[in-house]
Amino acid sequence: MEKKQPKLLVAGLLVAVMAGIWGMAQYRERLATERQLAAQYQERFFEAVGHVENVEVLLTKGLLVAATGSNQSEMAMSIFSDIWRQAFSAQAHITQLPVLQGTLMRTSKFLTQVGDFGFAAGKKIAAGMGLTDKERQDLFEFRKEAALLNQALKEIQAKVAGGQMPWEELQQGTNTLLRRKSKEIADNDMVRLEKQAIEFPTIIYDGPFSDHILQQKPKGLTGEPIGEGEAEHIAVKFMAAAGLGEELVAEVIGEVEGDIPAYQVKVRRPGRNEELARLDISRKGGHVVWMMAMRQVGEQKLDLEEAAKAAKEFLVSQGFAHIVPTYASLADGQAVIPFAPLSDNAIIYPDLIKVSVAVDDGSIIGYEAMGYLMQHHERRLPTPKITADQALAVVEEVLTPIAPPQLALIPLPTLDEVLTYEIKGRMADAFLAVYVNALTGKIEEVLQILHTPEGYLAM
Questions:
Q1: Is residue 134 predicted with pLDDT exceeding 60?
Q2: Which CATH architecture has domain 388-458?
Q3: Angle between the 4-67 and 74-94 helix axes, to the nearest 10 degrees?
Q4: SS3 sequence, 415-455?
Q5: Bridge partner residues of 347 (DSSP)
């Protein structure tokens, strides 16, 4: 019996070790599963936040279009069908989260109501009918509630992104925040529609994927083919104007194919290998397609207005005389300012050039002219058939203008272009840019302009 005890002890130890190994494996597997689930939940939550933000923007646009009597337009039908899609996409992501009871259940219910409203409104407009006063009031209430919901979700998003609200704690935190921001959403009498049985009429047009658009060639690419040596010379001259100084060396390191075939060029100091900037120079005409400087930006010393001034001075030095800045933004130490040319007092939005300015010293650290090179050409703009005052009258009942109407050429989804009056103003707490066709008086586009800490964002 005494001889068996060591064997029993060894066997017991082996069993304990095996159990420990098995337990550790199970723990690691469970931990990996939990992390995978947490990642999935976080992705679904962030998707839901994005869709709710889109719902608020679309409701704002729908409110303006409905209030201006443009209910019959294709734009209104597109807006309300998008409300339906975005609301139900948000709901689909929310229902996959582990926080369905309480406030998020009411949130899901609210999104269902908004989606139903958007679908019903789109159906009415497709049938040639407008919205009633009651439906316009419902639209106003939906928009107000969506703004509150969006604000609350953004607070939660910040906590989730910062790791302050683990998913096992999200249920309690979500309910607390949303209750503080959102009132009880009452039932209404809207009946759910049998969506599969109804089809929207199809708008027939040469869409973005038609052959003639896919096969279009760059309109702004002028000049004769250049060689590598000339591309290197252009790169040095461009970067000197951007603020890197005169002592520079450029080297072609490859060729880029695509819509605009180009040489890819690296810029450095003489005798050093450190890359200062990289550019694409078009093989036809030697145009700079894009540029990115490789440096860290120091402490901010310039505001957006000063950065825009530096960017414009740079563009003027490159031959772009008649240009205006549009909506600037500030992030990661750089100001990004899109510019558009002026022609016959109209802003030509398809021909955008984007310039990035370092806010520590005003040097140019980024440049992108793809839109300009693809779209710029000599245009003969039509003579407006309505006046600026007549365009203003289309929206003045619901929009408080903050500037006189401005002629603007904008692209349509078909990539056709239309001359409009750009009217910027406020509707309640929303800042909007409305584009009224200068020939027909029809609203062609509505953008909500969001003022963020980084600048202005058009949606």
A1: yes
A2: Roll (3.10)
A3: 160
A4: CCEEEEEEEEEEECCEEEEEEEECCCCCEEEEEEEEEECCE
A5: 342, 408
